[in-house]
Design a protein that fits this description.
The structure holds two protein chains of two kinds.
Chain A: E1 22-27, E2 36-40, E3 43-49, E4 55-59, E5 73-75, E6 79-81, E7 88-89, E8 95-97, E9 112-113, E10 115-118, E11 121-125, E12 149-157, H1 161-169, H2 174-177, H3 186-189, E13 192-196, E14 200-210, H4 214-223, E15 231-240, E16 244-253, E17 266-279, E18 282-291, H5 298-328, H6 341-357
Antiparallel strand pairs in A: 1-11, 2-3, 3-4, 4-9, 5-6, 6-7, 7-8, 10-11, 12-18, 13-14, 14-15, 15-16, 16-17, 17-18
Helix pairs in contact in A: 1-6
Chain B: E1 9-21, E2 24-31, E3 41-49, E4 52-63, E5 69-75, H1 83-88, E6 95-99, E7 102-103, E8 113-119, H2 123-135, E9 140-146, H3 155-162, E10 166-170, H4 179-184, E11 190-195, H5 198-210, E12 218-220, E13 234-238, E14 243-247, H6 253-259, E15 277-284, E16 286-288, H7 296-301, E17 304-306, E18 311-313, E19 327-332
Parallel strand pairs in B: 8-9, 8-11, 9-10, 11-12, 13-19
Antiparallel strand pairs in B: 1-2, 1-6, 2-5, 3-4, 3-7, 4-5, 13-14, 15-17, 15-19, 16-18
The chains are: A alpha+beta, B alpha/beta.
Amino acid sequence: MVAHNLGSTTTTKITNYPLNAWYVAAWDYEVTRNPISRTIADRPLALYRTEDGKPVALADACWHRLAPLSMGKAVGKDGIQCPYHGIVFNSAGRCISMPAQETVNPSATVPSFPAVQRHRYVWVWLGDPTLADPDTIPNMFQMDHPEWTGDGRTIHADCNYQLIVDNLMDLTHEEFVHGSSIGQAELSESDFTTTHDDTSVTVTRWMKGIYPPPFWKKNLHDVFPGYEGKVDRWQIIRFEAPGTICIDVGVAKADTGAPEGDRSQGVNAFVMNTITPETAKTSHYFWSIQRNYRLDSQTITTQMREGVHGVFGEDEVMLRAQQRAIDANPDYEFYNINIDAGGMWVRRLLERQLLAEGRLGTKQEDGWTE
Amino acid sequence: MAATNIEVWQQGEIMEISQAANDIKKIVIRQSKPAKADPGSHIDLMVKANGEMVRRSYSVVSQSEDLRDLTLGVFLVPNSRGGSIAVHELTVGDQLDITQPLQNFPLRVGAERYVLIAGGIGVTAIMAMAVVLKRIGANYTLMYAARSSDAMAFREELKAIHGDNLQIFLDEDKNFIQIPELIASLDDNTELYICGPIRLMDAVRRAWTESDLEYTNLRYETFGASGWFNPEEFIVRIPAKNVEVLVDKQHSMLEALEAAGVDMLSDCRKGECGLCEVRVSKLVGRVDHRDVFYSERQKEESEKISCCVSRIVTSDTGLASDASGPAVVEIITT
């Protein structure tokens, strides 16, 4: 591997993940008083709620013999009982009961990680807990705002999280991967701009005076039945470190002022994506499509969710195949072209964060390919 | 699974030694494989005492920004078992085997209020916690008690960092922590972390237990080094195995039995796990229970002993003057 030149950025194929970050561990509805197991950033977690409804993330291994606490049961107001020998821990990870002795060993603790519910997700922080500020959770207000509605799913993706981020930061691929739904030739023909700051990257693309692809034609008809004319289509992709990408998408009747800010003659949705590394080569990909029109229609909610589910199924196949090809060709490097600008800025930001945490390239011997 | 309990041994080099107070040395050790020391962590090190290698645990007071250097505070224990004397005899440049930082006393962030109590050398386990609480803007009080001003290590440093959050208590001023009043002023949103001599820890534990406070909010660490009485020589017999051993002041009952070839089971060796339990069949003297494994009731019964830390003394007062010889305990081992 060529030494990193931080001034120019890298061709890293598989990126290590920052730990001082909030990651979505689960949808809110998945986390109940009864524990579930989920691995986040290579750390197995037992996720559950206290009787008060607060989310809890404990290391999923009992202090005693490492039996998974996620197989245990809820006890008392915030406890969880190890399924093997009955040791009980509270939500702070502190033992409150041990079998066969009259005292509790003061060392008996399991790590308890900061956990917060926000935007219909449960977020966890695995790094330095003194830095865990919930105000730094990415803004995904469309997820639970009264003027927005929608739904989504989770993809368990067999690839490094960075490959999914790359996928979302450049939508040129829609023309080739999603030809039957949202793809069209104008995607790769239209110009785009890329901007960034310390923690975010934005890629903006307008396609003006085009015919909408099938998915968008249908959506436009939900508000403007019978409209068959041309549209102005937009994709404004905003990345927030380390793994959240909210994409402002929509179409409006052509030449009605959408590029200038008047979207009244169109339909608007936000594709809310947040990607959580599970291991070096697997990821939890949480997504939802939220819209701000026809809020009353559960049918449209389901249609859009299933439509995006179909589209993302095509991505999933490609991403898995890409990861396999990367693994099978360890001696080949990535080559970057102009459409990668968004993804490259993301890599630059992640690289800086990893460097600050002392985690840049630290896992090479365990199979990181760089 | 504790936060960090994998022992990774490395080489330590003594970089600095200075006097932090009477009988307390501040020692800076450079790690050959630098690892982060979170608040509450300690290292174990190997030193030669009375001709044999012994293992001792010391809390990490602070760490350099590049993670390489760890600062310890080491108290020259009266009637020492030899470890602290050996550490006090180290000089700059000496090399010794040390572990990477181990963690059995983690600080949890997020409580509304913290009370930290340090008694004497116990301050070494508390100092790094206080620094973090200061940095994150937590509501905390650091109560630091010692016999005398001369015996109080790191006092100026703590004053400079913690200002009004620091409260000093000196026995020589007849100024003691008012434990019942303190405990009565706390609620379930407060966490109390304490490290100090056994009498202080026990008084706080008792007051806490008698209150309605959530008992997991009382956090403490003990290495079993502090007792109710000064160590004395005593005799331990195992009639079933025809063993009689004299336990000197420098060794634990467990170490003496092991040295005599008795096949003993143990694990934590600091009075927490209960694995080194022996049953008492006859006792001439009194048990100085130094463990946190047995309950008050069990300690009063004295039918069982954590022999890694607990000792036998001749009398209830700890004064051996009226005894005709060393205390004697007959035990049954597992």
